[in-house]
Amino acid sequence: MKYLFLMLFSLRALFAEQTCNLEEVRGIQTKSSMQKWLDHDFGLRPYRANYLLPFAYSTKVYESGIPTVEYKNAEAEMQISLQLRVMHNVLGFDEEYFVSYTQQSFWQIYAKSSPFRENTYNPEAFVIFPIHDDDKYFRFRSLKFALAHKSNGQPDTEEVVFSTGDVLGNLSRSVNYVYSSLRLQHNSVVLDLTAWIPFPESEDTNDNKDLMDYTGYTSAKMTYFLHDHMFSVMGRGNFTTHKGAVEATYSYPLIHNYFYMKVFSGYTESLIDYNNYITKFSVGFSFSR
């Protein structure tokens, strides 16, 4: 059963979509509604990359924190990321308003009982202001302001003690934050510069007091297109603690999706392991870039 999910995704590329004959449908509005239904067009669009990576190998074995559960350093990784435009040009700057949802899952598919090591939930609300700039080598293209939440949906387990005497520790990870991102472009090179600030929390409600020591407050991501090839490199970190991460991706179009490859090295690959340094190679395919 644990491979059924992967097979269903793979079969997507083998079958055509079902269709209907709209010529016999009466009424322009009715025909338009049916066409949207057939096209699955309800305003939702890809936000970040949507991918399924059946093989992801880490140089370090993951710790489960449960005495009877052992994780492996090979797993599957998935991400679903969608956005919906909700408003446009409210302030007269041709700006666009969006809500989005991203879920990243780390699936220990090669371990006994195939548990999910972690699911990360990341809803956002943001506005993008376009910038018209034709004077510089790297030209400003847009400015983004966002309000976001990120968590793994786990309860506070700080006081959980096993019969063996082992302490589970707190599995809950969450952070509320605001961020701003500036996009620049030169030909087929896109540069995104981002800075974020977490909301202040009390000592009792803060699940990860030193999270920012490992993630930092800024990141830079460069995306480069060469014909059908797409490359990206992202770096983020904390200049005070000298901790952070680097991530590189590559994608190439297949028949109905994309070949997708990712290399990650650093901290906060997942929220549960934010303070563990991990180097990981993942390969599979994506449905969007």
Task: Outline the structure in words.
- This protein has 289 residues and is mainly beta.
- It has 2 domains: 1-42, no CATH class; 45-286, Outer membrane phospholipase (ompla), Chain C (Beta Barrel), CATH 2.40.230.10.
- It is built from 3 helices and 13 strands.
- The chain has helices at residues 4-11, 28-38, 211-215; strands spanning 44-46, 51-58, 74-88, 96-107, 116-130, 139-151, 174-186, 189-198, 218-226, 229-238, 243-253, 258-266, 278-286.
- The protein has a 12-stranded antiparallel barrel with strand order 2-3-4-5-6-7-8-9-10-11-12-13.
- A hairpin with a 7-residue loop joins β3 and β4.
- It is globular and about 70 Å long.
- The chain starts with a helix and ends with a strand.
Name the descriptors:
289 residues, mainly beta, 2 domains, 12-stranded antiparallel barrel, 3 helices, globular
Written as H for each helix and E for each strand, in order along the chain, the element string is: HHEEEEEEEEHEEEEE
**Count of strand segments:** 13
Amount of beta strand? over 45%
Biggest sheet: strands side by side, in what order? 2-3-4-5-6-7-8-9-10-11-12-13
Count, helices: 3
Radius of gyration from CA coordinates: 22 Å
**SS-based structural class?**
mainly beta
How many domains? The number is: 2
The parts where pLDDT drops under 50 for at least 5 residues are none
Mean pLDDT score: 89
End-to-end separation in angstroms reads 29 Å
Give me the CATH superfamily of the largest domain.
Answer: Phospholipase A1
**Spatial shape:** globular
| Biggest sheet architecture | 12 strands, antiparallel, barrel
Q: How helix-rich are the residues, as a percent range?
A: under 10%
CATH class category label of the largest domain: Mainly Beta
Briefly note the CATH topology name of the largest domain: Outer membrane phospholipase (ompla), Chain C
CATH architecture descriptor name of the largest domain = Beta Barrel
